[in-house]
């Protein structure tokens, strides 16, 4: 019985719950890919508008745009009223809003309470470095 419970917990951990994203070398190198690390929710509007403008200017060269939110501001991510306008702006499949798992743990935020449109990366800083290795242009705010 103990083994069945252990297996059930492992299965839930592996296949259910929060999706954790990792930076992998699967991005098209001939595209313009972008990464922003931010510590302030209000900056999301300007970031997302910049992404939209870059998408327009880049045209077919526009690749992916990843935004990782880290620091104490992750506490605000569970407030759907605050987040919904940003989620609406980011609805493009090429704009990914991500939460830093390290920050979530540090500030006691339950990742299951995040909006369903957001994924979690284990460490936002490491994620950014790995994207830079893949040729992403990046900025930290």
Oligomeric form of this entry? single chain
Rg, Cα atoms, Å:
16 Å
**Shape label:** globular
Taken in chain order, the helices and strands follow as HEEHEHEHEHE
Q: How many distinct domains?
A: 1
Strand order of the largest sheet: 1-5-4-3-2-6
Low-confidence stretches: 1-19
Please estimate the helix content: 25-40%
CATH level 1 name: Alpha Beta
Total number of beta strands: 6
The CATH homologous superfamily is termed DsrEFH-like
Give the N-to-C terminal Cα separation.
50 Å
Number of helices: 5
Per CATH, what is the topology? Hypothetical Protein Ychn, Chain: A
Strand content: 15-25%
What structural class should be given to the helix and strand makeup?
alpha/beta
| Largest sheet features | 6 strands, parallel
Whole-number average pLDDT? 85
| Corresponding CATH architecture | 3-Layer(aba) Sandwich
InterPro entries: DsrEFH-like
Protein name: Sulfur reduction protein DsrE
Description:
This protein has about 140 residues and is α/β, with parallel strands linked by helices. It has a single domain, classed as Hypothetical Protein Ychn, Chain: A, CATH 3.40.1260.10. About 40% of the residues lie in helices and about 20% in strands. The chain is built from five helices and six strands. The protein has helices at about 1-15, 45-60, 80-90, 100-105, 125-135, and strands at about 20, 30-40, 60-70, 95-100, 120, 135-140. It is globular and about 40 Å long. Residues about 1-20 have low confidence and may be disordered.
């Amino acid at each position: 019985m103990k083994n069945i419970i252990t297996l059930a917990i492992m299965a839930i951990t592996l296949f259910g719950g929060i999706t954790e994203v990792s930076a992998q070398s699967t991005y098209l190198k001939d595209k313009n890919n972008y990464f922003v690390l931010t510590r302030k929710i209000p900056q999301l509007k300007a970031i997302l508008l910049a992404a939209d403008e870059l998408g327009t200017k880049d045209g077919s060269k526009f690749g992916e745009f990843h935004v990782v939110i880290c620091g104490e501001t992750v506490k605000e991510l569970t407030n759907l009223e605050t987040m919904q306008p940003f989620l609406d702006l980011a609805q493009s499949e090429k704009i990914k809003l991500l939460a830093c798992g390290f920050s979530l743990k540090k500030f006691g935020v339950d990742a299951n309470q995040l909006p369903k449109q957001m994924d979690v990366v284990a460490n936002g800083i490491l994620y950014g470095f790995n994207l830079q290795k893949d040729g992403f242009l990046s900025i930290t705010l």
